[in-house]
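Intended use. Records like the one below are meant for learning the mapping from a protein sequence to its folded structure. Do not use them to infer anything beyond what is encoded.
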Amino acid sequence: MSEQWKYQLRVYLTDDLAEVARLDRTNPTLRALTDILIKHNAALVNQFDAFASYVAHAEAEGPENFPLYKWTKAVINDPAKRAKHINTFAIQISGEEVYPQAVADNLEAALQPLLGDKLITRITKHDTNPVNNPQVPSQYRS
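Structure written out for the chain above:
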């Protein structure tokens, strides 16, 4: 029986709208996006903020218990990577970070009209297949 991978959508916003989305997701400039997200019981999670939260939690609890701590800490401290992740938003659906392909495909289709309209600059879909995901570089392994 073949493995059923789950998926996550990510949207990339313009610099100014990424900042708005990080600070005030109810801002009217985001309405077209938030209306679609509400219809799909979905929410934006800023990638940089999620990484920073993981690092803060690890530091409070003891980083030795968090296998991605060193790598994530290096990412948030790297200005180029910060710039990359600050405009990136993962989409959670019904509180889940990953979801079935049909759910991801449906939301992706709903978001397509916003692509390139000075709101969403790019949409990507990522699966949970380990072959398609970066592994922790050796210098960050415990």
